[in-house]
Design a protein that fits this description.
The structure is a single chain. The chain has 84 residues and is an alpha+beta fold. It has two helices and four strands, in the order H-H-E-E-E-E. It has helices at 2-23, 34-54, and strands spanning 62-65, 68-69, 75-76, 79-82. The strands form two sheets. It has a two-stranded antiparallel sheet. A two-stranded antiparallel sheet has the order 2-3. The protein starts with a helix and ends with a strand.
Length: 84
């Protein structure tokens, strides 16, 4: 059941956009000059994600230990630990 809700939430913006375009046909589409900018933005996003993923400073066999709240209320930051 949770998957059905996730799928519906995924398709909701597309359905709303379709309804908006269906009931507002007089409104023109976006300027065609924006398409290359959108493609460039997508390419930069993917390149940044690849760079971030490949530039990690940790060993590939390391395990990430998430941040924890100490008993005195301070937060111990997360860190990478070698597998044992």
């Amino acid at each position: 059941m949770p998957y059905l809700i996730e799928i519906l939430l995924f398709f909701l913006p597309f359905a709303l956009f379709y309804l908006w375009r269906r009931f507002n046909p007089a409104i023109e589409a976006a300027d065609p000059r924006l398409l290359p900018l959108a493609i460039l933005g997508l390419a930069l996003t993917l390149a940044g994600a690849a760079w971030f993923g490949l530039s990690g400073q940790h060993d590939r066999s390391a395990v990430y230990v998430p941040a924890e709240l100490e008993p005195d209320g301070t937060v111990r930051p997360g860190y990478w630990q070698d597998r044992r």
